[in-house]
Amino acid sequence: MIKVLSGNKAAAHAVRLVNPDVIAMYPITPQTPLAEEIAAFHADGLLDAEMIEVEGEHTAMSAVMSASVAGGRVFTSTSSWGLEYMGEMCMLCAGMRIPAVMVDVTRETSSIRGVCGSRQDIMSVRDYGWIQLEPANCQEILDTVLMAYRLSEDARILNPVLVAYDGFFLSHQYERVEIPTKEQVDRFLAPVAERHGTTFMKDKNLQFCPSISGLEFANYRYQSLQTLERVKSVFPEIEKEFEEIFGRSYGGAVDKYRTDDAEILFLTAGSAAGTIETVVDRARERGIKAGLARIKMFRPYPRQEMAALLDGRKAVATIDRSICLGWNCGHLHMEALAAVSDAAQKPLMLDFIDGIASTDITIDHIEKALAITRTALAGHEVQETNWLIWE
Question: What are the residue ranges of helices labelled H in 247-362?
Fold first, then answer.
């Protein structure tokens, strides 16, 4: 079935098809239409789930954690301050490796009160221990939520997954979306139909953990680290299975566009990818060897893949939709700087801040980023971090 759906509605259809046992959500802009659509499915009898109308996000995460430990499949969603409010329980959820799935419709966090889009909120939770996936269009939102359940509940992983997409852009933008059948989804999720809890300590079936310290707590940390490393090999397997059933694929942890011979490589995440692809195509027509790498899986960070991809390029131009306070750059740029340290031939690394506060990332902005990058390659001095948003 094909429909024209917003990103929020696409996510809601994915939840309907998965049919979790327990859903607990608290509405917050721009996530609210997602919660409303799921509630409508439930009211119409299209979703057979226990819907918990909680008084806040902290309780929402507490509820889905408890339901998951009891053996249920769960879902929640939030944005911005809601994500920060549930932060305590998010850390506990990841530490206990509970197979929960959450959608975050990205939004600015508190500096001054900003009800506007950026990737700032998910950057504050990148060290919580959640797997983080970032789709680039409405179809990919639906598909990524389905893959999130398959990944989260895989016996080799058993870890919560956060699916994050651009608030006020993808959340409210309407696009063509192919909705799969319930039979297809059930077939895809069949390998995780019988899920089991995580045992953290040898010879103990421990799920809800007491307060511990020393080597037992260190074992928690060690297992969490090893689990996230396993995701790097498990996720491609799951995406391959997804392609076999649904006929769609998204390039794994890093989606590449015209990168084979690219001398100037754009780097980004989320919905900006489509605009950058247009600029890449125009650059190619002018004889400029440009390409794009879009990070689909931000956590665990695909360090080895990124290092190999950046190695030998002349320049990397990162388009960031969040700011890394204290680093004078965006988060994607900072992480790329770490990854490029593994490369044999390191490229020129430049960062471009754009699209925060619900401003548009335009073709003209990306063309300017390309021009600045070429100017630097010609030997002229440019700033490492450039704010395109003012143009």
Answer: 272-285, 303-310, 331-340
- SS3 track for 134-160: CCCCHHHHHHHHHHHHHHHCCCCCCCC
Coil/strand/helix, residue 181 = coil
3-state secondary structure at position 254: strand
Structure token pair of residue 59: 């309780």
- E-assigned strand segments in 149-241: 161-166, 174-178
CB 377 within 8 A of CB 314: yes
- What share of residues in the chain are helix, strand, coil (percent, to 5)? 45, 20, 40
Query: What are the backbone dihedrals phi and psi of residue 108, each rounded to the nearest 5 degrees, phi first?
Result: -60, 150
Whether 201 shows a pLDDT value over 80: the answer reads no
Exposed / middle / buried, residue 29 (Cβ in 10 Å: 0-12, 13-18, 19+): middle
Q: Which two tokens stand for residue 281?
A: 């195509």
Distance in angstroms (rounded) separating the CA atoms of residues 316 and 192: 39
Write down the residue that tokens 């700087």 correspond to. Answer: 337
Average pLDDT score over residue span 105-119: 87
Summarised one tens digit per residue, pLDDT across range 294-325 is 999 999 999 999 999 999 999 999 999 999 99
State how far the alpha carbon of 2 is from the alpha carbons of 173, 178, 294, 375, in Å.
Answer: 16, 4, 26, 45
**For residues 368-372, average pLDDT:** 98
- pTM for this entry: 0.95
C-alpha 249/C-alpha 197 separation (Å) is 29
Amino acid at 337: L
Q: Which two tokens stand for residue 104?
A: 């975050």
